[in-house]
């Protein structure tokens, strides 16, 4: 059974050329389903039917998994069984016509421009850590890129002459995002004054590094955002994606069209981008209520 999973991994890696994160997600979901079968069923991955998969989805729901998590796991299984079907390993796709649970529309917690400025002002760029962290936060808010994209940036991804960042440079879905004058200024300062002196290996191409001169990880960034947000008095849930979400809402509020925002954020489906319109509308409703209601 592990051999089939390995074959599927080679397929999504070499033929479909999915990102590393997507590959890991698919394989993790597949192994979890395989473990479920080992514990609760007498069949293996190849011989499951639609009833078993439906039972698995119910099991996940009762286990407290969110609708989005269950939908993702079903998508992983659907991709796997489509692969088996196309390669003649099975005759019927057990995921055919299965519907994922309906997801609730979630509006992200958005920072105001004033709150963003408070967070961006926290790092003092007069040391390696301060300069690096200032450049990171400014770049995140200036571009709206994901944290997973940020930690994978290399020096070669930055073009100061054009003032933009190139993402997914080795993939088919390469996109360039403008980074603005302020982010560019602090990024130059970090690179020219602190990055080189911290490197242990001059061949290292990672843009953002840690004290050991190695590429900064997502866990490392989470510590950074948590450190600076704790120093503020902002009473909102601030996650690594909050600056990205706030960036999207703020440029929409200032007149950017939805298609342009979709392209900048790298969303394949515009419905993903539309949640930021909901955030704007919810905020406007709150503002109207506060002004109009006598006891607001």
Automatic annotation (TrEMBL):
Keywords: Cell cycle, Cell division, Chromosome partition, Cytoplasm, DNA integration, DNA recombination, DNA-binding. It is found in: Cytoplasm. Residues 1-85 form the Core-binding (CB) domain. The active site is at residues 170, 244, 267, 276. This is Tyrosine recombinase XerC. It comes from Anaerosalibacter massiliensis. NCBIfam families: PRK00283.1, recomb_XerD. One of its GO terms (biological process) is DNA transposition. The gene is xerD. PANTHER family: PHAGE INTEGRASE-RELATED, TYROSINE RECOMBINASE XERC. Belongs to the 'phage' integrase family. XerC subfamily. Forms a cyclic heterotetrameric complex composed of two molecules of XerC and two molecules of XerD. CDD domains: INT_XerDC_C. One of its GO terms (cellular component) is cytoplasm. One of its GO terms (molecular function) is tyrosine-based site-specific recombinase activity.
